[in-house]
Design goal:
CATH architecture of the largest domain: 2-Layer Sandwich
Strand order of the largest sheet: 3-2-1-6-5-4
Radius of gyration: 43 Å
Number of helices: 22
Shape: extended
Number of strands: 18
Structural class: alpha/beta
CATH topology of the largest domain: Beta-Lactamase
Helix content: 40-55%
CATH superfamily of the largest domain: GAF domain
CATH class of the largest domain: Alpha Beta
Oligomer: single chain
Strand content: 5-15%
Largest sheet: 6 strands, antiparallel
Length: 757
């Protein structure tokens, strides 16, 4: 059962015995159970030891008394009451340890496992039921389609039977009609037989097309329809060409096998319709045309070099919303094309048009559904962004604010000041990141200001370098004197990040060179291409290029469309370039792209350079000293760290400050001394009373009281609503020291001017 050789070890201290047991130096030790359990629980290791036997000896103490003793009768209730008292439990716990709680780790683990198994089984059952339901629905759809096919086949068989009856009737009357046929030269029997064959062939074609259209892709459907049209009209050649979106050119798409034996025309994606001869009449006239004397036709212009020789020709356009989408033609029948051929080709074209419209509607519906799902996803992201922005900005306010205060107290050339400057830079990047998230989710307004884009581009490239592999070389050409633009910093950051990310994705498998340049450029009227929607003037040009895979013309035409992406489902939303395009247009600029397969891509963004006055404003904003004052400012914010930070900042500028982290206390103080304060700075989102409600209360007591409202983010307030409520300044957190100083001084100066007037 156990070990035969047992070695005993005597310990002077129980703690040493526990340590050796846990370390595996001994297999077990003997000690009184209650005391051992208490010591193990106090040390937090009770879950790591196991009781393997009962006490070797148990000492019980008792006093013998007579039965029915009065003293015992009085003692028993007192003892029982004591056993239920907290004092007893405290004493018991002191000597024996606290009893193990019911909700132990083991019980919780078992309960969690049972719950997980239950949920898993439930999900499997739900999935099974869902699959069963989907199978039933699919079976129902298949049954319905099968039923329709059977009905169509029945009708077809019935029609064939009726035509056979007519055929027998015609056979019986053949002899009686011979003389009339000879006199009138009608050939009715031959014509009727031929018509019957054509009708049967057309009906069979329609049935086959109905069955095949659900399994063939577009090109396979086109090829099948073209081959059948050639057979049904007894033609030798057939073709199908696509009309491009411009309705001015065609793409030479498809020929039948017989035509390909003679046709050596080089495929042309943009063959001008105006160069087409009478073979293109059906495109221009939007109706079916026949040329039974093609070579002698006076309007014949010829056809592309290498095209099959034509003797007779018939073509029909396939329309969608009154625009020609395809041109469908046959040619070189041994006899002239007649009304039966016209009917056949028109039926074929009509069925092809139905298939195209149906597939277009299905594709459009899928696109709309995908856009709806993406929109719902973006709404969810927006809701989430708004929810976290307020709290996150409060945290950043404290980080940035206290860092600025500490830097101000240190020697500028100290190592601590240098390290804290890095903390401040990181905080500012986080601040801009929140602005980007809110801007992307359409929950934050852009603030246009004169800025130097070269600094933002360098900052964006620093962030990108950490994620770009070493196989991609980054080449910069950033002019330090490229001028200023009127924009929001977040917008410039988004433009560079999106364009560089796309360039990186184009080269991540092969490596290459990512080029980024920012330079001033003067565009005259001669420099502006037809694709650029700009006026002559001075611009800042942002250029991002790569040596990646490039794009073809079809992709280039769609890259700025919302939700269009060439990436996988988990790699892109299709919104990046659409957002860039929207930003550039909102800044009165333009974006161009040059690309070809295998030769890389170059994006150029042109944003107007700001005028001289704007440059002066920018320079003044950079060089001016932070203003100060001695007025009395009341601060209220439910975050104590932010209150203390703002108080320190304002005191460093010379202001008197009364700070509160409870809105009710601040309001009571103002009610008691309404004329003691020159300015109120309040947070928006606070327990009990919002900053907007506080403002209304304050203005009701003193209408000339200036108020600055600060917010991390709130759906209840924006700059316009704040102004309408009588608020003088609207500041977004996190607050920078210079922003707070400038805002306070501007509000107080405006108040002073009003009082003078």
């Amino acid at each position: 059962m156990g070990k035969k050789n047992i070695t005993g070890v005597v310990y002077n201290e129980i703690s040493t015995a526990f340590f050796d047991l846990l370390a595996g130096k001994v297999d077990a030790f003997i000690y009184p159970k209650p005391v051992a359990l208490k010591l193990a629980r106090d040390a937090g290791i009770d879950g790591n030891i196991k009781i393997v036997g009962e006490n070797l000896a148990e000492i019980k103490r008792a006093i013998r008394v007579r039965k029915g003793d009065k003293l015992l009768a009085r003692l028993n209730p007192a003892v029982n009451e004591f056993l239920r008292s907290p004092e007893y439990k405290k004493i018991y716990g002191k000597w024996y340890g606290e009893p193990e709680p019911f909700l132990s780790i083991r019980r919780l683990t078992v309960a969690s496992a049972v719950l997980l198994v239950t949920i898993t089984v439930s999900l499997l059952l739900w999935r099974f039921n869902t699959i069963q339901k989907l199978n039933r629905e699919q079976e129902h759809i298949i049954d319905e389609r099968t039923k329709k096919l059977i009905e169509a086949n029945t009708l077809l068989q019935k029609e064939i039977g009726e035509r056979k009856k007519k055929e027998k009737a015609l056979l019986k009357s053949e002899n009686g009609l011979k003389e009339a046929q000879h006199l009138g030269k009608m050939g009715s029997w031959d014509q009727s037989e031929e018509l019957l064959k054509r009708e049967t062939a057309r009906s069979q074609f329609l049935l086959d097309l109905y069955l095949k259209s659900n399994v063939l892709n577009d090109s396979e459907v086109y090829e099948y329809v073209m081959d059948e049209a050639v057979k049904l009209t007894d033609s030798k050649i057939g073709y199908l060409h696509v009309i491009n979106e411009d309705q001015q050119t065609i793409t030479l798409t498809l020929w039948n096998k017989e035509a390909l034996k003679e046709c050596t025309t080089v495929p042309d994606n943009h063959h001008p319709i105006v160069k087409g001869g009478i073979w293109a009449d059906s495109i221009r006239q939007k109706k079916l045309v026949i040329h039974n004397t093609y070579q002698s036709h006076p309007d014949k212009k010829g056809y592309p070099e290498g095209h099959s020789h034509l003797t007779r020709h018939m073509s029909v356009p396939v329309l969608e919303e009154d625009q020609v989408r395809l041109v469908f033609g046959v040619g070189n029948k041994s006899q002239n094309y007649d009304e039966s051929d016209v009917k056949t080709l028109q039926i074929v074209a009509n069925e092809l048009q139905k298939i195209i419209v149906q597939r277009h509607n299905i594709e459009q519906r899928r696109t709309l559904e995908a856009q709806l799902r993406q929109t719902q996803k973006m709404e969810a992201i927006g809701t989430l962004a708004g929810g976290i922005a307020h709290d996150f900005n409060n945290i950043l306010t404290a980080i940035i604010g206290y860092t600025e205060i500490t830097i101000g107290d240190l020697a500028p050339d100290s190592r601590a000041a240098s390290d804290l400057q890095q903390v401040l830079n990181a905080g500012n990047r986080a601040k801009e990141l929140v602005k980007q998230i809110l801007s992307f989710s359409r929950q934050a307004e852009q603030e246009l200001q004169p800025l130097r884009p070269q600094l933002l581009v360098k900052e964006a490239l620093k962030l990108l370098r950490s994620s770009i592999p070493s196989t991609i070389e980054v080449k910069e050409n950033i002019d330090p004197e490229c001028g200023a633009v009127l924009a929001d910093p977040t917008q410039i950051h988004q433009i560079i990040m999106n364009l560089c990310t796309n360039a990186y994705h184009a080269m991540r498998e092969t490596g290459g060179v990512l080029g980024v340049s920012v330079t001033p450029v003067e565009l005259g009227s001669d420099d502006l291409t037809t694709k650029m929607h700009l006026t002559a003037g001075i611009y800042v040009k942002f250029e991002v290029s790569d040596t990646g895979c490039g794009m073809d013309k079809m992709v280039l035409e769609k890259i700025f469309d919302p939700y269009y992406t060439t990436k996988g489902k988990k790699e892109g939303t299709g919104l990046g370039l659409s957002v860039v395009h929207g930003i550039v247009k909102s800044l009165h600029g333009d974006i161009t792209v040059y690309s070809s397969l295998g030769e890389g891509t170059t994006f150029r963004v042109y944003i107007p350079m700001v005028d001289t006055e704007a440059k002066k404003v920018l320079q003044a904003a950079i060089t001016r000293q932070l203003p100060s004052g001695d007025e009395h400012v009341l601060i209220v914010d439910d975050d104590e760290a932010i209150v203390k930070m703002e108080e320190q900042m304002l005191k460093s500028f010379g202001y008197q400050v009364s700070a509160f982290n409870r809105c009710e206390e601040a309001l009571n103080e103002f009610r008691s001394h309404p004329n003691a304060f020159d300015l109120i700075i309040t947070d928006m989102t606070m327990p009990g009373i919002t900053g907007l409600q506080l403002t209304r209360e304050v203005l009701a007591l003193r209408s000339d009281m200036p108020v600055i409202l600060c917010t991390g983010f709130s759906e209840l307030i924006n700059e316009k609503k704040a102004k309408d409520a009588g608020i003088c300044q609207y500041l977004m957190k996190p607050l920078l020291k210079k922003d707070l100083a400038i805002a306070v001084r501007e509000v107080l100066d405006k108040k002073a001017k009003k009082q003078i007037l």
